[in-house]
Amino acid sequence: MTTNKTILILENLDSFREIISTALKNQGYNIIPATSVKEAREMIKDKTIDLAILDMKLPEETGLSYSKELKQTHPGLPVIFCTGYMDPKDMNEIDSTQVVDLLIKPFNLSELKKRVKEVLEGK
């Protein structure tokens, strides 16, 4: 299966980012892997992306704060958060018009692939 859909994966843990990237590449998606918000900003500048998968807890800033930035720079971009821990106060700040899913680590790769497909196909 090949697709012209592009996904930003922002995850600071190398092994986790590589596993997600490989699983979604094998589904035919174009992947832009990033280890930091700074790197993600640079890599997607002037690019069209169809989905962002963001880690909630990053060293320099949160995925939540970056999702708010993405809402301005890439209006309508759906976001899936991945996290090992969800602070209850973060739940109140999530914009449900932009954030379409939340996956708690560790999660099953088949579940990730299913959810990504649903988001990108608008189901």
What does this protein look like?
With 123 residues, the chain is α/β, with parallel strands linked by helices. It has one domain (6-120): 3-Layer(aba) Sandwich (Rossmann fold), CATH 3.40.50.2300. The protein is built from 5 helices and 5 strands; from the N terminus they run βαβαβαβαβα. The protein has helices at 14-25, 37-44, 63-73, 88-93, 109-120, and strands spanning 6-10, 30-34, 51-55, 79-83, 99-104. The chain has a 5-stranded parallel beta sheet, with helices on both faces. α1 links the parallel β1 (6-10) and β2 (30-34). It is globular and about 30 Å long. The two termini are 18 Å apart. The model has no long low-confidence stretch (mean pLDDT 86).
Secondary-structure blueprint of this entry?
Blueprint: E1 6-10, H1 14-25, E2 30-34, H2 37-44, E3 51-55, H3 63-73, E4 79-83, H4 88-93, E5 99-104, H5 109-120
Parallel strand pairs: 1-2, 1-3, 3-4, 4-5
Structure keywords:
Rossmann fold, 21% strand
CATH topology-level name: Rossmann fold
- Quickly count the domains: 1
CATH architecture: 3-Layer(aba) Sandwich
Structural class: alpha/beta
Give the strand line-up of the largest sheet: 2-1-3-4-5
Specify the CATH class.
Alpha Beta
Quick overview:
Helices cover 40% and strands 21% of the residues.
